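Ticket #406: bound-state structure for pyridoxal-5'-phosphate.
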Amino acid sequence: MVKLDNFEVDHWLLSNTNSVEHNLGHSYCLPRSIGDLQQESGSGTDVDILSPIISKPLDYGPMKGSEDLLSKISDYYSKESSSQLSTESIVTTPGASLANFLVLFALLGPGDHVIVQYPTYQQLYALPKCFGAEVSFWNSKEHDGWKLDLDELKELVQPNTKMIIISNPQNPTGAIIPNQTLKEIVEIARTHSIIVFSDEVYRPLFHSISPTDPAYPPSILSMGYENTIATSSLSKVYSAAGLRIGWIASHNSNVIDLCVNARSYALITASQVDEHIASLILSPPCAQVLMEKNRSLAERNVSLIQSFIDKNSSSCEWVKPVGAPIGFIKFKRDGQPVDDLELCTRLLNKKKLLLVPGRKCFGDGIRFPGYIRLGFGGDTRQLEGDLQVLQAFLDSDYVDIPLSTE
Ligand SMILES: Cc1ncc(COP(=O)(O)O)c(C=O)c1O
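RESOLUTION: The complex was predicted; output attached.
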């Protein structure tokens, strides 16, 4: 039997979501219904967007995903890069979770070493460990805007380093790896023939940087290095987590072949119904309309959180996120971090308000005391109400939260 660590963030969210009235634990933009998507796609209410699949025989469908969806995903990458990404370079999956799983399962094993940007989504380091690889953390600098130090990366490289794993934008911080740093990561990887695997599930939702800013990060696939892999999905910034559609993309055909083979063992193919709806979401004008709405929603909401933090600066602080509808906030009293698990548990019990405890879910129970992850991709009115509830808690109950002993 393989030994898998508890998936803390997912367990925390899935076991607590039902009882909450104020959900600031999620990490996606406002989920949309199929009816909403019909509106966004400009089809109007008299056209049934599901009609093309009503008469479609429900066979397994094509090996790597529907041609229509693959070409929409290819367009999505090709728009921002001078080099075209062919449909042959993509394979669909049920969500980025399975995309990540397949990449790590297909490519890593005992004897391999991986370097993982930290903090990050637990899947990205727990699975390599489970598959027998040795894991080194490349720590983002908490006190320096979650920046990464390239000299440290060079020092972490070993003769058996197979993969550098990053996510951009980053969960839980919402920080980005800027363009220049990405270029330098790729140069280090190229020198040692290392794969760079980037989880880009929060792309392209950048609410606090302009696409014309030189630091604006492109997809890892557009860096001119064949040994790069990107995974993504429609869950977070395209408001369709319930669809369960994601993908793996790489210019390296060997990587794609290995992932397709692993995918055959795990699921044969993805759902054709889901793929049909997914290709509608990625079609113009739906994708652009959704992205623009979600970007301005995140822009509005991030400034609400910033005002909340400014008002409560003796109790909390953050590095303002640049992308993704999430931020990592440190709660303190008299300059000391509070016990974040106790804070989240009391907020749940007293106020039915859900946040994610940072030390438990992103710090292996040790690091990031006082931190919580807060999701701000929801409705703005609702967020205003949620912040009032959080404020009431800070005003009356916060004084009783114990300080962290870590
Ligand atoms: C960084 C990251 N990658 C992947 C996923 C999985 O997303 P999904 O399987 O819904 O596409 C998540 C979900 O929280 C995430 O935060």
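RESOLUTION NOTES: The longest helix spans residues 286-311.
TICKET STATUS: resolved
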